[in-house]
Specification:
The complex is a heterodimer. By secondary structure, chain A is an alpha/beta fold. Chain A contains 15 helices and 16 strands. Chain A is about 35% helix and about 20% strand. In chain A, about 55% of the residues are buried. Chain B has a two-stranded antiparallel ribbon with strand order 1-2. In chain B, a hairpin with a 5-residue loop joins strand 1 and strand 2. In chain B, helix 2 crosses helix 3, helix 3 runs antiparallel to helix 8 and helix 5 packs across helix 6. The chains are: A alpha/beta, B mainly alpha. Chains A and B meet through helix 10, helix 11 and helix 12 of A and helix 1, strand 2, helix 5, helix 10 and helix 11 of B.
């Protein structure tokens, strides 16, 4: 037992929880027949509870739009229970809203642990969700699986030590090295003056990306790019004239950054008004979601962005058997919405969770479940997940490519245009300079 | 040098937007002493109404704007008659609490109905059209239009307040509601009309917000903040003061942003505090309006 494992925080887990015992008792009372051996009955009533923390409301809500769809899929896939070591275990998901707030996320996780007595917690969508949730799980000794936060802010942001790692919490996603590598590879596709203008806001993402040592600046200098970085701006910003003046004066041909959609929409229309015409605009966050692209309209054509998952990714779900394309199509058919990257990542959380459950000893045995998660070697819809092979303990890396919003008939489609870091994902097109007809 | 001129000019134009944000708030406070915490969310709501008008009813943007103004004005009338009227005369706290609640309800309703996606209104060439002023300075047609509209709105409101019977009723009710009632003015009706007028201005602000950038259901409180600061800087109840407040906010933000991008928003808040320290009642408190 280590310091992190504090059983005081919750009742010790035995095969019988208070709840199952109560249910079993009620069942017996109704049946009226006193069985001498209630044990098998109790076993059958066992439920594996998964707590799910997600930013349902608040500024991050766009990441949680596919949650209902994903949970419905999981409930369908586990409707008859899951085979765990020769018995059937029912699966229940308890959903909690983080309200896009890290304090609330921690609270939600602790409610799940203490009140709902969940066996496992899954969480996703930016450090403000995954970090507090994982911290709560680590303190309380509850297995936890997270994704959709670059691994550095998740691992180092929680004070992780690469030599030791964490005991209860596991994470899979790409890292800053991937985003830097894939952006620079993308930019080398076309001839530019290699002058990059940066839009990095003063938030956790902007500061990490713009970090002089670990972020973009060092790598850009190494690869011969000139960088125009005015400093971290306060978001939301209503006016980008200062950036535009400098970008124009220094002849910026590549614009990059990690910018919330309203700020980028604002920057991009002001760039149009004030005559900045970059050849490449690769801005994360703002151009990841189809709806945000539609909000910008025709001028979104040619924007490029990192792609963590798309319908052409050559992976399929072990939970539903769907290919990437089928998952995206099913989502659109069920909700009328276009696919967005979090869809597959939310899906994969439950894939990995159910895979671990099958290899565990069922509900009420967190140690066995943790071992099962630790030894995960699973082909998910977002790529292989294996926590033994990551850059640091407890982390598994998923592939990253880049795409460009290109016109396809009336609408803009995100097409993969560069796969330097993940050659198993097919490219569909090449990068076209903005304004040039592709 | 031209860089700074450009920066200042863009700051002044940004002030036009802040003025539009603030005018509705200024009106509601001037006539009813009502601090409407849901003001920012109502601006966002107006933006969504505009979006529905354009995308669902397929109206051109200008016609959609007219629809939004009518819808919001009617909504303002109903809001005042049905809800806010019950808070009048119960101290400063009850309208604050009621509109605070309204703000939360609106945000979540919009999240439920329109989802968390950021949306925008397409205005075609207008979005990037610009006017060259010589040198390196070009200003966007849209910011110019917003500024022009802000000034027009203020002039119209000013005329309404000083030249019409309704305006006199507004001022009378604002100065002394009870006496106004004795003189035969239906104050509830006057309040409702004032709210309708305030919401009409909110509608204009909402349409411009929708065209200018993308918006989502939760952007309201931030707009409320700027509106509030512009009203306070300008002096409560003064419409021209609100314009001055908006421009001061816009310019100080542009200057701060130019010095260091991290200081942009901060410097407009600092300007606000500085005005509060020097002139606690704002620059033009209750001057020509009352």
């Amino acid at each position: 037992m280590t310091i992190n494992d504090k059983p005081i925080a919750r009742p010790a887990r035995s095969g019988l929880s208070r709840r199952t015992l109560f249910k079993a008792g009620a069942g017996l009372a109704v049946a009226g027949a006193a069985s001498a051996f209630p044990a098998p009955f109790v076993r059958a009533a066992q439920t594996f509870k998964i707590g799910f923390v997600s930013p349902r409301t608040g500024p991050l809500a766009v990441f949680a739009e596919s949650d209902d769809f994903t949970m419905a899929q999981v409930r369908k896939a586990t409707a008859g229970g899951v085979q765990v070591g020769g018995r059937r275990v029912a699966v229940e998901i308890i959903y909690k809203d983080s309200q896009s707030n890290s304090n609330r996320a921690a609270e939600a996780a602790s409610e799940l642990i203490l009140d709902d007595e969940v066996d496992l917690i899954v969480a996703a969508s930016t450090p403000s969700t995954t970090n507090p949730v994982a911290d709560q799980c680590e303190i309380n000794g509850v297995p936890c699986i997270t994704n959709d936060t670059p691994w550095q802010p998740h691992f180092f942001g929680r004070g992780g030590d690469p030599k030791v790692g964490f005991e209860w919490t596991y994470h899979f996603f790409w890292g800053l090295e991937d985003i830097i590598g894939s952006f620079t590879s993308l930019w080398s596709q076309i001839e530019t003056n290699k002058t990059v203008g940066a839009l990095w806001p003063n938030d956790s993402d902007g500061n990490a990306w713009g970090d002089p040592k670990r972020g973009f600046p060092a790598v850009l200098a190494e690869k011969g790019y000139g960088l125009v970085d005015l400093g971290r701006f306060q978001s939301p910003a209503d006016d980008f004239t200062s950036f535009l003046i400098d970008f124009k004066a220094k002849d910026v041909e590549i614009v990059t950054g990690v910018v919330p959609p309203p700020d980028f929409a604002n920057f991009w229309s002001q760039a149009g008004q004030q005559g900045l015409k970059p050849k490449i605009v690769t801005v994360a966050k703002a151009s990841e979601f189809p709806a945000a692209i539609e909000a910008i309209g025709d001028r979104a054509e040619g924007l490029s962005v990192e792609v963590w998952w798309s319908p052409v990714h050559p992976f399929s779900s072990g939970m539903t058997g769907q290919s990437s394309a089928e998952l995206a199509a099913a989502y659109t058919a069920a909700t009328g919405r276009r696919w967005a990257m979090p869809l597959a990542f939310k899906h994969s959380l439950f894939e990995v969770a159910l895979d671990a459950l099958k290899r565990s000893e069922g509900p009420g045995n967190p140690d066995a479940l943790r071992e099962a998660i630790k030894t995960t070697n699973y082909a998910s819809i977002v790529g292989p997940v294996n926590f033994q092979t990551g850059p640091v303990p407890n982390v598994s890396k998923t592939p990253l490519v880049t795409g460009q919003w290109q016109r396809e008939g009336k609408s803009l489609e995100l097409r993969i245009v560069d796969n330097a870091l993940a050659s198993n994902i097919p490219v569909q097109s090449t990068l076209v300079p903005i304004g040039a007809k592709g | 040098m031209t860089d700074w001129l450009n920066t200042l000019l863009q700051g002044v134009l940004l002030g036009g937007l802040y003025t539009l944000f603030a005018t509705g708030l200024s009106l509601a406070f001037g006539v009813m002493r009502l601090v409407n915490i849901a003001h920012g969310d109502l601006i966002v709501l107006a933006a969504y109404v505009a979006l529905v008008a354009v995308e669902t009813l397929h109206l051109p943007v200008l016609a959609a704007a007219a629809v939004v103004i009518l819808v919001m004005a009617a909504g303002g009338y109903v809001l005042q008659r049905g809800l806010l009227t019950h808070t009048v005369g119960r101290g400063i706290l009850s309208p604050l609490l009621v509109t605070f609640g309204l703000s939360i309800i609106l945000q979540n309703l919009m999240l439920e109905i329109f989802s968390a996606d950021s949306r925008g209104l397409q205005a075609g060439a207008l979005e990037t059209a610009s006017v060259s002023l010589g040198g390196d300075i070009t200003v966007g047609a849209l910011p110019l239009m917003i500024m022009g509209t802000a000034i027009a709105v203020i002039v119209l409101l000013q005329l309404l307040f000083t030249r019409t019977t309704l305006g006199r009723a507004f001022r009378a009710t604002s100065d002394d509601g009870e006496t106004a009632q004795l003189m035969g003015i239906d104050t509830k009706q006057v309040y409702a009309l004032a709210m309708a007028l305030a919401m009409a201005v909110v509608a204009v602000a909402g349409v411009y917000t929708a065209i200018r950038t993308s918006f989502d259901p939760l952007g309201g409180p931030n707009r409320l903040l700027f509106a509030f600061e512009a009203v306070i800087i300008g002096g409560l109840g003064s419409l021209w003061g609100t314009l001055a407040g908006g421009i001061i906010l816009g310019v100080s933000q542009a200057i701060g942003f130019r010095l260091d991008p991290g200081w942009g928003t901060l410097s407009s808040h600092l300007a606000f505090l500085a005005v509060l320290v020097v002139r606690p009642n704002g620059l033009f408190p209750r001057t020509r309006d009352r």
